[in-house]
Give the backbone structure.
Amino acid sequence: MKKRVVVLGMGGTISSVIGESGLSPSQMPSDLIEQIPELKDKYDIETKELMSIDSSNLQPQHWCR
């Protein structure tokens, strides 16, 4: 039986790509999991996008979410 893992997307550096004005969060959590396909063999992975915000703009109200 595979272990269940939930990957939460909030934006930030890991989900960012280079654009015209620098880095900006644009990858969904599922996009990140697709880059490591062998994870699907070992885990039952669910992804959820909570927000897509640059980590430098993260505020306390975001933490509560």
User: Anything to note?
Assistant: The mean pLDDT is 87. Helices lie at 29-34, 39-42, 60-64.
